[in-house]
Amino acid sequence: MKGFVFHGPGKSAWEEVPDPDIKESTDAIVRVETTTICGTDLHILKGDVPEVRPGTVLGHEAVGEIVEAGRDLHAVQPGERVLVSCITACGRCGYCWERTYGQCRGGGGWTLGHVIDGTQAEYVRVPHADLSVHAMPGTVDGKDAVLLADIFPTAYEVGVLNGHVRPGDSVVVVGAGPIGLAAIATARLFAPERIVAVDPAAMRLDAAKGLGADALADPVDAQELIADLTDGLGADVVIEAVGVPESFELCTRVVRPGGHIANVGVHGRPVTLHLEDLWSRNVTITTGLVDTYSTPTLLRMAAAGRLPTSSLVTHTFPLDRMEEAYDVFGRGADTGALKVVLGGEQHEVVAVRAT
């Protein structure tokens, strides 16, 4: 089979790789129908995630069909169409008992495309498949469902829920990439007073407006705008969805006393934490790797048409054009790419402006 292989910082290729085999009795082999590229994959290619070893097939999101199941699996069987979660869970360790699957100590957590071969391939081995794949509702298209493997649960759990968004809150989302846009869409479920999207790209701000942002700002002007909108107090909740020092430090300047900063972005460089300014302001800062405990809920919402997944997909490619898809996604400022999806029934590149 073929897969997209990381060969070290700045080096990767779509190439022949060994077919995956069942290694443990709780494994499943999934034929990949649809996959996507995550911003974290770009961080890996830049060398920001050093634990990813050269030779690893990247990717941690997919929709596909189970073609082989280990003998100790009970909830899944060959022929079943499933969503492959970005997080695997053993279901037995203390973290899994607390639904903190991202911290699983039984061989789970973020494994796919990280410490084992991932989903950007024709087939993938999924460990602990009983708890790590989800049956696909027949009404949800694979192109939409694949966004529920990572970006929507990440934005919802690590951003909106960790940030304690409540009705009537002022919410600021710094970064209007796929995660930030998903945070805007799911924050709206809690009826905040306003959502402010901050991003330097006009195209992404347009997408944010289409998903429900009430105010838009360039990072240069954001602090002044947010002060004006909140009578100088600052936002109740600020969600960091970029992963660079400048964006995090902006979050600390626009949060109100007693407010929440929910960091979602993947940081590859150290960030200065200005405790000399924050220590007396009762600010709560949370970080986190997604646990995906919300995935079943989000799947039900998608099946009911309650999540605007389609509007985030701007480009689709067949699997064998993975390298071109990476180029388009990596140059999002030039190409207008938000979320790039590969596979499914699409055989020509489609670019759709998000609205």
Structurally, the number of domains stands at 2
Q: What's the name of the CATH homologous superfamily of the largest domain?
A: Medium-chain alcohol dehydrogenases, catalytic domain
Query: Largest beta sheet, briefly?
Result: 8 strands, mixed
CATH level 3 topology of the largest domain = Quinone Oxidoreductase, Chain A, domain 1
What is the general shape?
globular
Structural class: alpha/beta
Give the SSE order as H and E letters: EEEHEEEHEHEHHEHEHEHEHEHEHEHHEE
The whole-number mean of residue pLDDT values reads 94
Number of helices: 13
Uncertain runs: 346-355
As a percent range, the share of strand residues is 15-25%
Q: Helical residue percent?
A: 25-40%
Compute the separation of the termini in Å: 37 Å
The tally of beta strands, per DSSP, is: 17
CATH class (first level) name of the largest domain: Alpha Beta
User: Architecture of the largest domain in CATH?
Assistant: Alpha-Beta Complex
Cofactor: Zn(2+)
Pfam family, one: ADH_zinc_N
Family: Belongs to the zinc-containing alcohol dehydrogenase family.
Protein name: Zinc-dependent alcohol dehydrogenase family protein
